[in-house]
């Protein structure tokens, strides 16, 4: 399994770290932060073919803007234990890229991709309602950045297998 991820800038990482004390009570805290753009059901043997198909699919993609706008939650996530608290991400460019990749590669999970896709940075999962409420009541300053690189993450190797630079318009 692979995922094409949007790396987050230091300002978003600092925001996630600043929220860490409010994650008390959650069973699973996320220590690696990114925004998943698209998942791929490919194993390690398919890596080179996937990378070449992605190279073609991504070739017309310029850098785009993204903004963390607040804290939100999936009360009952489609996979795994919930609730899941996250930083909400708004980005028309990311939504467009996700749609194009779904058209090219199809969906891996109907309930996470396509019309169900919600760009976000996961903070934690499986916590008590009072911890979720505490986070949802947190006001944050929006953080905007230009997405100029994408990372193809290998779940099997737990590392970035390939980096793609996006040209600035």
UniProtKB/TrEMBL annotation:
GO terms for molecular function: ligase activity. The keyword Protein biosynthesis does not apply. InterPro entries: 2H_phosphoesterase_YjcG-like, Cyclic_Pdiesterase. The keyword Ligase applies. It holds the Pfam family 2_5_RNA_ligase2. Keywords: Ligase. This is 2'-5' RNA ligase family protein. The lineage of its organism: Archaea, Methanobacteriati, Methanobacteriota, Stenosarchaea group, Halobacteria. Gene3D superfamilies: Cyclic phosphodiesterase. It comes from Haloplanus rallus. It comes from the Archaea.
